[in-house]
Design a protein that fits this description.
It is a single chain. This protein has one domain: YaeB-like fold, CATH 3.30.2310.20. The radius of gyration is 13 Å and the shape is globular. Strands 1-5-4-3-2 form a 5-stranded mixed β-sheet. The protein is an alpha+beta fold and 96 residues long. It is built from 3 helices and 5 strands, in the order βααββββα.
Length: 96
């Protein structure tokens, strides 16, 4: 049985708290859909920044990485940033 998890880096935890409440619920719901493996999500790899991916949820973008632990049969989604689409380019520049 898979025990997939979503964890937030400190920066992303601060950013999601700044998202207005209705949109924050949508972002959290989107992350839950990501965790359970929903197929209808708008996910793209960040061009020139592997291993980062971008999840689009309305006007919000979640930048994350996905790591598979085959021993624990677990997929770990690490949320790096939660930004408005207008701030995506700047957030990508801050990635290491």
């Amino acid at each position: 049985m898979s025990a997939d998890r979503v964890v937030f880096l400190p920066r992303a935890a601060r950013e999601i708290k700044a998202v207005p409440a209705p949109e924050q619920r949508r972002v959290r719901d989107g992350l839950e859909h990501l965790r359970i493996g929903a197929l209808n999500l708008d996910i793209k790899p960040l061009s020139g920044h592997p291993p980062y991916k971008r999840l689009r949820i309305g006007t919000w973008r979640v930048i994350y990485t996905q790591n598979v632990d085959t021993e624990a049969s677990e997929v770990l989604f690490t949320v790096v940033a939660v930004v408005n689409r207008r701030d995506l380019r700047q957030a990508v520049k801050k990635l290491r």
